[in-house]
Design goal:
Blueprint (H helix, E strand, L loop, with lengths): L2 H12 L24 E6 L4 E5 L5 E2 L4 H13 L20 H5 L10 H14 L3 H11 L6 E2 L1 H10 L1 H12 L7 H12 L1 E3 L1 H7 L1 H4 L14 H14 L5 H7 L4 E3 L4 E6 L3 E6 L10 H14 L5
Antiparallel strand pairs: 1-2, 1-8, 3-5, 4-5, 6-7, 7-8
The structure holds glutamic acid.
Glutamic acid binds next to loops.
């Protein structure tokens, strides 16, 4: 299939739709991004790469990092992780406190903030330098030269009152062991990783390839663990819009409030899109449109 012309056509078709969403502004340092940016990148398991627009420009990956966080959590804790966090879609906003209260401090899934904060808490049991180890981990996924945007990390730490509240509510329910500062430092740095669409697509390829990085043959997760991460991406990867994403696009994926989305076609490829204007659920408006058009035009979907 000629993926290059598919994404070039989609790029031209969606460009006129920009201007309808809103760049995330609740983290002050994210406000300054140019809302008109648009990039698309595809990496195939066979090593081909296709790009259009701003596909090589780095941006703040925000909650897409929750997939790396979960993968490291599974690697270090194995199945014991699931005693601390669930696998059900939340149907609530990503930073909701309400659900935690009636579910006794066990977050619904690892892709809402509370769930990712618990996974970070478990990483702190085992990793001495979790921020360095996260960068080293993404490097193993064949995406080198990534870094943290310290301005974004700092900005988020200073204004992350809601995340601090989530940590402390869970601490009161005995589901947090480490200090607020230690957890927030790792969590905010993860969210402040900067990557391009090309880098994101490359780093997610192991999830399309049964847990193995195609270019190095390194196994990151077992086939069974990979199936589970993909299932959680499908059911929980898009905040309280996961159902609509499955309906419109039909692929496992993860979004972030920086405007990025990565999705995978198992056995074939991964695709990343970046467009900073978000819809009211916090997902990239054009990003969803691009992926909807991609699966419609190519017929590639898991359904
Ligand atoms: N760093 C963001 C927060 O905790 C992540 C938001 C997101 O991309 O969902 O609020």
């Amino acid at each position: 299939m000629d993926f290059q012309s598919v994404i070039e056509d989609i790029y031209q078709e969606v460009l006129p739709l920009s201007g309808q969403g809103k760049v995330a502004d609740y983290i002050p340092a994210l406000q300054s991004v140019n809302p008109k940016k648009l990039g698309i990148a595809i990496e195939t398991i066979g090593g081909e790469c296709f790009m259009v627009g701003d596909a090589q420009e780095k941006f703040s990956i925000q909650s897409i990092s929750k997939v790396f966080n979960l993968t490291l959590g599974i690697q270090t804790k194995g199945d014991a992780l699931w005693q601390r966090v669930g696998v059900e879609p939340s149907g609530n906003p990503f930073n909701s406190l309400v659900q935690l209260e009636y579910e006794n401090g066990i977050p619904r899934n690892p892709f809402i903030n509370a769930g990712a904060l618990v996974v970070v808490d478990t990483l702190l049991d085992d990793l001495d330098r979790p921020n360095d180890e996260m960068l080293a981990f993404v490097d193993r996924l064949r995406c080198s030269q990534i870094d943290y945007d310290e301005v974004v990390a700092q900005s988020e730490k200073e204004t992350g009152f809601n995340n601090r509240a989530l940590i402390n509510f869970m601490r009161a329910r005995d589901n947090i062991r480490h200090s607020d500062e230690a957890i927030l430092d790792v969590y905010c740095h993860q969210c402040a990783i900067t990557m391009s669409c090309a880098g994101l697509a490359r780093s997610f390829l192991f999830l399309a390839n049964n847990g193995v990085v195609p270019s190095s043959d390194e196994r990151i997760l077992s086939s069974s663990q990979t199936k589970r991460v993909n299932a959680i991406m499908l059911t929980c990867g898009f905040y309280d819009e996961a159902g609509a994403f499955a309906y419109l696009v039909g692929l496992p994926g993860k979004s972030g409030v920086g405007g990025g989305i990565v999705a995978i076609v198992p056995g074939q490829l991964s695709i990343a899109v970046w467009s900073p204007e978000l819809n009211r659920h916090g997902n990239s408006l054009l990003g969803i449109k691009v992926l909807e058009m991609f699966t419609t035009k190519t017929g590639l979907s898991i359904f």
